Amino acid sequence: MITLAIDTASLNCAVALMKDGSIVARISEKIGKGHAEKLIGQIIEACSLAKIELSSIDRIAVNVGPGSFTGVRIGVATARGLALALEKPAIGVSSLEAIGFEAHGHFPKSHIIALIDAGRDMVYRQDFDENLQPLSPAIVQNCEEVVAGLDNKAILAGPFSKTIAHLAGVKESSIYFLDAPDVASFAKLSQNKSSDGSPKPLYLREADAKPQTSFSVPRKKE
């Protein structure tokens, strides 16, 4: 089984190839913006490094968010396009699930709270139990709601974990900070999932930038 994993939902533009459970190529670059220009080149480079033909890929795993709205769209669209061209399944994995997965590896048997900055004083959040089963769907809350609803025995994980820990007065030993999950985690998590059609972005809230619907430029008088 060969799996291609794609992550463009964070500051990173990253791809990985996993063959029979082992990562055989991984490319990750922290770029902030410009994922569309980088992604296809990274996929080609990863295939070259692993000496794997693109046509040999059995499935595609993609980070469906939450995260950068533009980044999520780029990753999901690329995964869908490759799945269609290769006639292979594409599997969506959330960034919160990947964060929980990595934190669980360091803190087994712990309640994990995965946290990502959603902007405008909002936080993407999902809780996982000691067996990494989700305790609730992924949600978006303001910082005060997150702090008020914390389990004082839980591990705070993800790129927004330190901020929430500071607001809540949580000790350092209960934090698992990471800028973004490892792209390999999406490949690994996809193995236990089946494709239910094309992966769909997990946005949780509306984008900040919206098209103008009530503004028009007045015509210039002759």
TrEMBL record:
Transmembrane segments: none annotated. Coiled coil: none annotated. One of its GO terms (biological process) is tRNA threonylcarbamoyladenosine modification. Residues 190-222 are annotated as: Disordered. GO terms for cellular component: cytosol. Residues 31-141 form the Gcp-like domain. Pfam families: TsaD. SUPFAM superfamilies: Actin-like ATPase domain. This is tRNA threonylcarbamoyl adenosine modification protein YeaZ. It comes from Bartonella apihabitans.
